[in-house]
Every structure is written in structure tokens, then in C-alpha cells.
Amino acid sequence: MKNKINVLFLTVQLETIGGSERLIYDLASSLDRNQFNPSVAWLNGDNILQEFVDLKIPLFHIPKIKRRDFSTFNKIKEIIIANNIHVVNAHHFMPMFYSYYGCKVANHIKLLYTEHSQWEIGRISGKWKLIGKYLLNRLDGVIGVSNAVSDEMQAKFNIAPKRLFSIPNGVNINSFMEIKSRNLTKSSMGFSDSDKIIGIVANLKNNKNHIFLLEAFHEVLNEIDNVKLLIIGEGDENDPDNSENELRSYVQENGMDRAVYFLGYRSDIPEILSILDIFCLTSVKEGLPISLIEAMATGIPVIGSDVEGIRDVIIPNVNGFLVRLGDVLGLKDAFLTLLKDDILCHEFGRKSQALTIKSYSIKQCVNQYQALFKPVA
To answer: Is 79 found in the same domain as 212?
Structure first.
């Protein structure tokens, strides 16, 4: 036991699940337990997703009460010491900033920083850009979830190449393929087997741009009757970026209640994906979207907005379509093309799965992180 490497994953929140939370969950659940002891800590929000509780690993809530809460530095330091942490993997800039003192000043342990999107880096300016440049060039590793994210960090902070890595997000491909092989019927989940079903998995936030999807789906309904839209994800009433009320109002005002289903947070994502005909992600900006990769692993044709992150995984006319932001008719036409062509859907879905197996397996992702977690200095 004493020879194992104790790894602490630190992030902003664990109340809702997005790309970074999913990656942390996959890493914590997939690390080789003969070599590593994972634990997870978060800063904002009192609640935690049940999936993390079910992992039965140490979990630490480090309440960050004020905008600049200097007590957070000390709390992280105390957790590191009390639990003999060897490596901290901080996800997002703010957790990295608060981890630095406990890892590199009060102790001498490894600190790795994972960034999930170009836009988060792009909005850092002024003194925080200078602070970032100083800190990131003293970390043990800076990880972008795509080449584009790593390039953005290099341009912003001039990071030494030996410290900078790109590790694409991965998913447990086998679990999605296994559930797909069960051939779950649409009727088993409350729909008609003749229904065509489109789905999106994303928290209800303005950045995810569900309204663009709803506008295009409204046009689709004018031409096809037996089509449904499943919106999987939830809004946070305390989040100023919450879009749930706007989306529900749009659906009601446009008489789309019969065809649009708000499913909220779901733990059975693989089962839901297995009955979809099309997966769509219409975000304004993304890092490397795990929900999209999960859909591809299931063997689903995909449609997405032509923005950073999404264009990294959708190859137009190979496994799906990219649509310019705001092009409602273009998105409608992409839907109709696939809804009316089962052969094309099958071919795009097959290519989606092949691309995921080649580039986005969780095994590849975990192996690269494990290599960075050791050796411990």
C-alpha cells in the first residue's frame, strides 16, 4: 500500500456533470489500483454527484466562500499533508491557481494542470495572464484536452515544450458498444419503434446553445411528424448562464410539447444513446466534447456546430455534418438528410465508432495520464 501513488483530482464543482467532471470520473474509476490511490476534491457547491460517491474513494469538499478566498490555499495544503498526496491533477485554471501553494511552496509534490477549452484560456488577461505565465512554467505538466487547447495555452503563456502535453478526452468505448449490442427498443423506453429520435446531452446553459437546436427542430416538425427530440441535462437556477426557463418557454410557445422531452440529469446515458437515430451538439464553444464522443462510440451519426472542439471530432460527410452557428435552415437540412436516409445514417454511425476506437478510448487517455503521474519525485 505504501508504494502506491496517491493522486488527488481537484476541480471547480461536482454538482452537475460536464466534460471535465466526466473526465475526472473516468480517470478516478479507471486508474490502475495496484499503482494508484485516487481521491477527488471540489471547491464550489455543497452537493456531489452520486457517481462519485459510488466510487468509494476519498472525497473532499474545500468550500471556496469568497471570490478570492486565501484560506483555500491552506485547506488544500492540509489535505495534501493529511492524506500523503503525491500528485495533484487540477482541472481548470482556478483550481490550479489554488493548488500551487500546497503543491509547490508548502510541499514539494507534482502538480499537473488540465485545461478543457480554448475559450477559458482566451478570456484570461491582464495580471492573470502574467500570473499564469509564471505558474504554468513551474508546473510538472500542463495538459490540453486537444491540440487546439494546448496550442492556445502555448500562445498565451509561452510554456516550455517539455511541460506541455495534449491528451484527448477518452470514453469507455466497450460499455457503449455493449449496451448498443443489446438492441434496446425505442418502445422499451416509452417511444414508438417507428419514431425517429434526435438527442443532445449537455447542461442547460447558454453556451450549449440549445435554442439553435430547438429552432431547427421546429422547422423539422413542419416536414416530419414522427420525430422526437430528447434533451438530456439540467440547468442550475443559481447559474447566471442557466437557459432552462428560456428553453421550456420556447417549446411551450411553439406547440412543441408533443415532440420535445426534457429528461433532466440521467445516469443511464448509454441506454438513451442506444435508441437515438442522430446526436446533435450545437454549442457556441467547446473543448473536446465527451458527450459527442460517447455518441460516436455508440455508433450514431452526429451533427454539430462548426466551432472549436466540435470540428475536432466531426469529419463532414464522413461521420456527420458541421453547421455554421445560427444557420437554422442548414441545421434543418442536415437533420432531414439523415432522417430520410437510413443507409447514410448507418454509414456515418459506423465511421463514428471507428474514429472513436482509433483516437478516443479511455484506455489510451488513462495510460497517458498514468505516465505523467509517475515517477514521483
So the answer is: no
